[in-house]
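Hi L.,

As promised, 4-hydroxy-tetrahydrodipicolinate synthase:
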Amino acid sequence: MTESFSCPIVATVTPYQRGGHLDLSALSDYLDLIGAAGVETVLVNGTTGEFASLTVRERIQVAEHCRSRWSGVLVVHVGACAVGDAVELARHASDFADALAVMNPFFFAEAAETGIGAYFRAVLPHCLRPTLLYNFPRHTQAPIPPRLAAQLAGEFPQLTGIKDSGKDRSLTYEYQQIGPDFRVYLGDDRIGARIAEIGAAGVVTGAGGPVAELPVAVAAAVAAGDIERAQARQHEFDRYTDARKRLPISDVAFAKAAVSTRLPGFPTLVRPPLTSASPEHAREIHTVMRSILPLLHRDNPAY
């Protein structure tokens, strides 16, 4: 089983009402925004979607709602610390998602390779759609060993690749050696213009969703072989990323505040232990967004 996704893949945010409940109406608005930007593939209930702060029932609601509102490719992340939760989510998403993603448990720092393997071997039999492993060592403190990824790919034909959100490119290279049909997607907003050089299948962006036109333009230029244009659009996207990295808030809080510039009234609340952008930070984010919006409109004259 092989599967290739149109990139960039955008990992969606999860908006909340003032009382803290899911705001599915706002989520619909966000899906419309990134769809209009040219995005064809979304990842829901990922890190940007605050999956670790959602109950299983809420993750099911988000996935079902996105399927009802998103006509493009839907990738649903089903990883959880509890194997039973991950199995439940995998069974559920297998009924309607185009693909699944599975992160190894994120609480058990420095878990042994045998334990990580046991987790995936318990969950993957219930993933009935093309499935990506999800490597995010910053949060799991346990990178998925390439040797284990290769073993799992040999055991589970639905396992088609990995989302690698780590920064160790030597590890990325080892994932790429697993096989020609094992695709590696990078969670790195700065690397889109170099994706062909690196040999990866594409980019997954979360915090870049509010300016999705930029990574979309980078990917289009790379696909057309116009590296000069890809680098120019990457430079513009890097301006946004630089601003995001300067502020002492989470990428999720930054992204929600950035979305509110384009969708007035979009809720910027995040769940503890994350903290929402302060009024001062929100003003700075809005200033950054206003400077970038003309670049987005250049590629989307309908705005």
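The two ends are 39 Å apart (CA to CA).

Thanks again for sending the construct details.

K.
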